[in-house]
Amino acid sequence: MTVTYRPRPSVVRRDSGLYGYERALARRGLSPIAGVDEAGRGACAGPLVVAAVVLRSEIDGLADSKLLTPARREVLYDRILATARAVQVVVTPPEEIDARGLHKCNIAGMRRAVAGLGCDLGYVLIDGFPVPGLPAPSLAVWKGDQVSACVAAASIVAKVTRDRMMTSLDDLYPQYGFAEHKGYVTAGHRRALAAHGPSPHHRFSFVTVNSVVRSGAGGEIGDNELGAGVL
């Protein structure tokens, strides 16, 4: 009789610290480990930015990007780029989101980011939802940017990259306030859309923008210029 031995599964407690997943996977020989996260999924303007990060060593102060001040994110962003084993960023523009759909673009961006790391991976940790077709075993981790160091690093890289892009857009389109709300829906952003109509960097397939276009607000863009579908 042939007996197949499998390694005893690791149980990672959510209170085991930000490096708990990485340490458990490393003990099983499943390294290097990539973390993947995105920024801009819920925005109605600007790109979707996906980042994948393989850390080389532990970084003090690492945390979910949403829990950090902008200044602290910038400091950690520089530290991640200076010390990480590999970092890859994929930017998907609004017109591609309109044409293909947000979730498809998110999945494709995560695959591209992992593939672009340029190293053989032992495991991939993804924030939120599973991504099929990755070159290594993977796990979708609920609120992964709060419990996994490499996912937290990816969230910081994606967030800082996108925030810088939105701040640059604010220089070109100051009437929308992109530097303040970064393309997310706020009362001020709604008022700007109603007054000026959408910019070329808005996502026309999103309900907030689509409704403005159909109402004729701003008078700049007609229905024939809409993207695909309404989310």
From TrEMBL:
A divalent metal cation binds at D37, E38, D127. It is an enzyme of class 3 (hydrolase). GO terms for molecular function: RNA-DNA hybrid ribonuclease activity. Residues 31-218 form the RNase H type-2 domain. InterPro entries: RNase_HII, RNase_HII/HIII, RNase_HII/HIII_dom, RNaseH-like_sf, RNaseH_sf. Its main location: cytoplasm. Its cofactor is Mn(2+); Mg(2+). PANTHER family: RIBONUCLEASE H2 SUBUNIT A, RIBONUCLEASE HII. Endonuclease that specifically degrades the RNA of RNA-DNA hybrids. Belongs to the RNase HII family. This is Ribonuclease HII. It comes from Sphaerisporangium rhizosphaerae.
